[in-house]
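Justification of resources, computational component.

The compute hours requested in this renewal are based largely on the per-chain cost of generating structure records like the one below. Each record pairs the submitted sequence with a full structure-token output. That output is archived, and it is also reused by downstream analysis tasks.
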Amino acid sequence: MGIVFNQFSNVVEWDESKEGVIFWKWPNDEIKKGSKLFIRPGQDAIFMNKGKIEGIFTDDGEYDIESEIIPFLSTLKGFKFGFNSGMRTEVVFVNTKELLCKWGTKNAINIPAQGLPGGMPIRAFGTYNVKVEDAPVMLEKLAGTMQTYTVEDVKTRVDASLDTLLMSWIAKEGNDMFNLQADARNIAKGIESDMDMDLRSIGIGIVDFKINSFNYPEEIRKMQEKAAAQAMVGDVGKYNQIAFADSMSNGTGGGGGNAAGMAQAMVGAQMGMAMGQQMMSGMGMGQQPMQGQPMQGQPAAGGAVPKFCPNCGTPTNGANFCSNCGTKLA
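The structure output for this chain reads:
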């Protein structure tokens, strides 16, 4: 047989139709005879009378209020329902689950940095979870004046002190101002500790505060990218060579089928040849003659007359001296 209610009975429950709610007051202030209480998983039901907590029920399930709830209420345990009268009391449902909240700096905050008189403006973004740690304290502080309390209300409180905490913990843990992500875990733990201490005064705790990213100004990001590329290559000369080769392969060094593009391509080719010569010279190969060829201005080995003058390149025709420049050939 199903549950039967009389015409005056009601159902005391919270369906959590709206996300992010930390506590919610049941809108009626009078419970009728034959009423039932439903507690869902992750909820507590707290009965209050004139601002005082009468009883806290934490186990999920279905309860008959007259026989299973009233006997456990502090000052209402002897209450008897009349034919037309009900029990005047407040029921507050508390969400006991962890609730996710996103955070982010609304404006860039200036972090003191060496060489930057005004500081370095950065933004930061992340997430944290909130959880009810002490329901009686929370209700004492908040339930008297509020019908509901949500993560957005917590976020408003957190945002009021977030910038100050962020600056403070970056100063303590930020070893490299240009790579704060490396210290993000320690910075986040410090902020979580301070914020948790503050929110516990209203019965709520902060769990798992995270910094997902630090955002630097565009100029700083470009400097970081260039410094990283140079560090990977090893020196500026090689970095420039790789940058040039990359621009040529992407078509940004010239081309396009017009005269200007062809000229750029020729200049690029000359630069490439010059780079190649520099690299050969750096490896000690710039002074080595090819096998079988004499050095410029020197006669061929073994007294044989060369076919061309090694000094000016004029055909020798077997002569001992060059007919053009007079260089001795044998």
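Residues 99-216 form a domain with the Tetrahydropterin Synthase; Chain A fold (CATH 3.30.479.30). The chain has a mean pLDDT of 78.
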